[in-house]
Design goal:
This protein is 47% helix and 10% strand. The protein has 528 residues and is of the alpha/beta class. The chain folds into 3 domains: 166 residues, Ankyrin repeat-containing domain (Serine Threonine Protein Phosphatase 5, Tetratricopeptide repeat, Alpha Horseshoe); 232 residues, P-loop containing nucleotide triphosphate hydrolases (Rossmann fold, 3-Layer(aba) Sandwich), CATH 3.40.50.300; 107 residues, Helicase, Ruva Protein, domain 3 (Orthogonal Bundle), CATH 1.10.8. The strands form 3 sheets. The chain has a 5-stranded parallel β-sheet with strand order 2-3-6-1-7, sandwiched between helices. The chain has a 4-stranded mixed β-sheet with strand order 8-9-10-11. A two-stranded antiparallel ribbon has the order 4-5.
């Protein structure tokens, strides 16, 4: 007698299921047919450790990445209009009685269920058939999130690395790391190239697997050090919140706070909580860890880092050893920032002089910012002694793979920063007040003049807020901005006086392209 598709799923629970399934496959029954409550035969077989059934279903074309439509007993009961007891009985009798009725299973794949069943053989079969170990369920959990300690977790971790790297290689053909970083970082060509080269070596197996990869980012504040570290973390991992951590070393000036790093020893307050660093590395051994402002850390913290960088392992407060040889550690510091900035400015002046000479000779190859490179002599004779005097440990500096230098912005990079900031506020003006904001090119040059080498990009941000956003806010408060209007920023000359400073003018542009300068009243002084 013909067998219905619903019975197809039921046969996976029988001892002689393979015989029936083979017959059904020949009759053309869809191997991805779902139970009325949402699951497939492959999920049932995976959960119940039926290896021969899994094999037949995969060969018949069952999708290993199909997600379960079943959530939990009570939600499914409401969705289907069925009594919760009937749903519970069906789930236990026709799927598995070992799963919680209250837990959520929507989006779980056969790989999730094989992991819950702690069945390494089925896990391998599914992975080899194309199951994606990075696929998440409705709760955002991959299969490895449900793995116990042992073979299943190890297999899933290995395959996650393979799938992630293969996918990135396919996406990365003609889209190298340098280009991706440059989409988010303005300038700093040398720093980006140095970091990308080191990570490329690590990705392709050309690195020392006995030690983690360690960077030290040097340069002024607000110049892109922390942002580059965050972009590296986003590149290495999909979810930056889960796999990277910003640890502000300035909070570790006092020796007794070192316990926050690795956890308090037994008998001390906070022993059960563990340390910031140890918890992170235990959860993700290949994390990207950022130590911000490392120059402000206590010497005891540097001792812990030395063990971390040299041995690739860390002992927590409970005496457990955590392996982290596959991690990437990035330290940032403002040490020697003035020397680096002055040297960078000198190099730019020399490059501009070379460019002027080439232009005078009618040559087109003008010097670019990415041609600026800090000399080896400067690194050894100026920077190295400063670092040694500050950290006082040659072995600590010796474990750093790359010291990366961040230079002050050149004028073209400052224009990019100003444009980025103006675009940010233009988007806000459109979203919040339906105001279109435009500006002339001289506006960029004027605002770029507010750059302060010691504060980096933050000085541009503050200049835009002070000279542009303050005017916009005052005009809005004084009801000078018609709804849906177009505003144009332009530069107004300061007059004939030599010391007069150009100012920004705010104009309302009409539909006929006519413009009207806004008469924005200055704020009252405190005495008024």
């Amino acid at each position: 007698a013909p067998v219905t598709p619903s019975a197809y799923i039921m046969f996976t629970l029988l001892n002689n299921a393979v015989v029936f399934l083979s017959r059904l496959v020949k009759e053309g029954v869809d191997p991805n047919h779902r139970h009325r409550l949402g699951w497939t035969a492959l999920m049932v077989a995976a959960m119940n450790r039926q290896h021969s059934v899994v094999k037949v279903l995969l060969e018949a074309g069952a999708d290993p990445n199909a997600g379960d439509h079943f959530n939990n007993v009570y939600d499914t009961s409401r969705e289907k209009g069925i009594h919760s007891l009937e749903v519970l009985v069906s789930r236990e009798d026709e799927f598995s009685h070992r799963l919680s009725s209250r837990a959520g299973f929507r989006g779980c794949t056969a790989l999730h269920y094989a992991t819950l069943a702690d069945d390494p053989r089925t896990v391998r079969m599914l992975l080899e058939a194309g199951a994606n170990p990075l696929q998440t369920n409705a709760l955002g959990h991959t299969a490895r999130s449900y793995a116990k300690e042992g073979e299943v977790g190890t297999v899933l971790q290995e395959w996650e690395g393979k799938v992630w790297l293969d996918g990135r290689r396919r996406r990365g053909g003609g889209f190298p790391l340098e280009r991706r970083l440059k989409e988010h970082i303005i300038g700093q060509e040398g720093a980006i190239n140095t970091v990308a080269s080191a990570i490329r070596r690590k990705e392709n197996g050309w690195y020392d697997e006995e030690h983690p990869l360690v960077f030290l980012f040097l340069g002024s504040s607000g110049i892109g050090k922390t942002e580059l570290a965050k972009q590296v973390a986003r590149y290495m991992h999909k979810d930056i919140k889960k796999v990277s951590c910003v640890i502000l070393s300035k909070y570790f000036k006092i020796s007794f706070k070192v316990a926050k790093f690795i956890g308090s020893p037994p008998g001390y307050v906070g022993h059960e909580e563990g340390g910031q660093l140890t918890k992170l590395l235990k959860a993700c051994p290949n994390a990207v860890v950022l130590f911000d402002e490392v120059d402000k850390a206590h010497p005891d913290v540097l001792t812990i880092m030395l063990q971390l960088f040299d041995e690739g392992r860390l002992t927590d407060g409970k005496g457990k050893t955590i392996e982290c040889k596959d991690a990437i550690f990035i330290m940032t510091s403002n040490v020697a920032s003035d020397e680096i900035a002055q040297h960078g400015l000198q190099l730019r002046e020399e490059a501009e002089e070379v460019s002027r000479r080439k232009l005078a000779d009618n040559l087109d190859d003008v010097q670019k910012s990415d041609d600026i490179k800090i000399s080896r002599q400067f690194k050894e004779s100026v920077i190295r002694p400063i670092l040694k005097a500050h950290f006082r440990r040659d072995e600590f500096l010796g474990r750093i793979n790359e010291i990366v230098y961040f230079l002050p912005f050149c004028h073209s990079e400052l224009l990019q920063l100003v444009s980025k900031e103006l675009n940010f506020w233009a988007k806000k003006a459109k979203q919040r007040h339906d105001i279109t904001l435009k500006w002339d090119r001289p506006v960029l040059d004027l605002l770029a003049g507010g750059y302060n080498m010691h504060y980096g990009a933050r000085s541009i941000k503050h200049e835009v807020e002070r000279r542009v956003v303050n005017q916009l806010a005052a005009a809005y408060e004084q009801e000078l901005l018609p709804k849906g209007c177009t505003l144009r920023l332009s530069v107004q000359s300061g007059g004939r006086e030599e010391r007069s400073v150009p100012s920004l003018r705010l104009e309302v542009v009409g539909e006929d392209s006519s413009s009207r300068t806004l008469d924005i009243r200055p704020p009252l002084s405190p005495e008024h």
